[in-house]
Amino acid sequence: MVKRMLFPDYIFESSWEVCNKVGGIYTVLSTRAKTLQDVMPDKLIFIGPDFWKDTESPYFKEDKRLFAEWREKAVASGLKVRVGRWTIPSEPIAILVDFTPYFELKNDIYSWMWEHYGVDSLHAYGDYDEASMFSYAAALVVMSFYKHYLSKKDKVVYHANEWMTGLGALYINKMLPEVATIFTTHATSIGRSIAGNMKPLYDYMFAYNGDQMASELNMQSKHSIEKQTAIYVDCFTTVSDITANECKELMDKPVDVVLPNGFDNSFVPKPSTFTKKRNAARQRLLAVASALLGEQFDNNNTFIVSTSGRYEFRNKGIDVFIETMSRLRNADINKKVVAFIQVPGWVGEPRRDLQERLASGETYDTPLHTPMITHWLHNMHSDQVLGMMGHLGMQNSKNDNVKVIFMPCYLDGNDGIMDMPYYDVVLGNDLCIYPSYYEPWGYTPLEAIAFKVPCITTALAGFGLWVNSIVGHEGEIEDGVMVVKRTDYNYHEVVDNITNAVARYINMPKKAVDAIRKNAEALSKKALWSEFIAYYKEAYDIALQKAEARKAATK
């Protein structure tokens, strides 16, 4: 007899990045929302931190008619919430909560967590307190809403994302056991820390003790909340097989389900406007390059390549990208190359001299001072990107056929130089390179191929391993995604392999390039949320089966 799978009547999903665009989880949640919203309209409710309060947010539209009765009651009880819509496709309901009032209860909350779950908050610093108070507030939102509108007959899931929401998941687990809990770690805090501290992660994974490493790297509190949440929730998940291995080895808790990250291609322009938007992106990128470098770039004879993502110099392979572009200067290529590093740094302000040149519409034959960067940084003299470029003698001189430009800002459409959102920029590339050392999944390469831009990633990225499983071999550039083998120790081999692949791709005839772009797009369609949502259904079922068993035991 086939077991009947349970599916929730309501899903509450919390994340630091709900209506708060700071990283890849924003993309995960915002692109997945439509698939679930289509299945369960307005029964999917996101909970995020209210940073905006009385000011207008570009990501949230308040609607005081939604759950008005509950909202008034919640506010009267001291729970400061705003209810509205997340301004993404499908506009799901979002509840933003002000977590600042709970700081005065912090010690009591941490004591409760230690007493019930053994969570060590003694070594908390930085963003731990802020995240924990938000997580606690999010749990109070769910409990208040549940008591007002729902009952044991409703199948309810609370889905917490990353260690920042772990405390709330544990609180619900204890105080509202009728609700099924799911916890997703998108990257283990201790694994990221080991990699970010230049320690070899992969060859020694089996030998590392997660608790010991957390103590050594001053990560005890984040590791503790993440580990205890993984142990106690109804369903523990992560985003790739590579991170599932991390969880087993470093957190002593195997995952119940792997939830790969999909994409919603409603973000991709329709064929009727795609070429126009691609040309607009290329024109703007080349205009910025021309104004900065005092050199003209012909659209048809210039190869545009980029890397992007979080500013984790080694983990995201930014060092590999720079070294690759440096070596490419000596390669036999038939086009000029303009390479962009689109990684938010400690940005000060957009360059006024560059803004003036762009606004003038004139052409220039002399470069601006420091022609490697579009925005001034607060830490110009200690920045890792500029430091490595300087070390390699990459000054974007006239004779260099490869120019590298650092764009250290969020491409939100209002950065003062590009003034185009990331999705309107990425499709202007000929190639994207993401040579990550630590990458649980890898959204940026998936986004690239969805916009028909072939890319290069590594076998240390969850997405790279997924590509290999789909194409049946190590991905080559002809597949639309090249997957480079990367280990703890083969940095220079990785750089050589990528340099050779880029040079070969630049010199390919248009017909071959067009075929590769089609393969990239076809591969992206195998990673749509409509394909991956089945894994979530499995996680919902696992969690709900446990919650239903608890309900039955208390009857």
How would you characterize this protein structure?
By secondary structure, this protein is α/β, with parallel strands linked by helices. The chain has 19 helices and 17 strands. A nine-stranded mixed beta sheet has the order 3-4-5-2-1-6-7-8-9, with helices on both faces. It has a six-stranded parallel beta sheet with strand order 14-11-10-15-16-17, with helices on both faces. Helix 4 packs parallel to helix 5 and helix 7 runs antiparallel to helix 8. The longest helix is centred in the C-terminal third of the chain and has 25 residues.
Structure described in brief:
This protein is of the alpha/beta class and 555 residues long. The chain contains 19 helices and 17 strands.
Number of helices: 19
Q: How far apart are the first and last residues' alpha carbons, in Å?
A: 26 Å
Biggest sheet overview: 9 strands, mixed
Helix content: 40-55%
Rg, Cα atoms, Å: 24 Å
Overall 3D geometry? globular
Assembly state: single chain
Mean pLDDT: 96
Proportion in β-strands: 5-15%
Structural class comes to alpha/beta
**Which consecutive residue ranges, at least 5 long each, have pLDDT under 50?**
none
What's the arrangement of strands in the largest beta sheet?
Answer: 3-4-5-2-1-6-7-8-9
Give the strand tally. Answer: 17
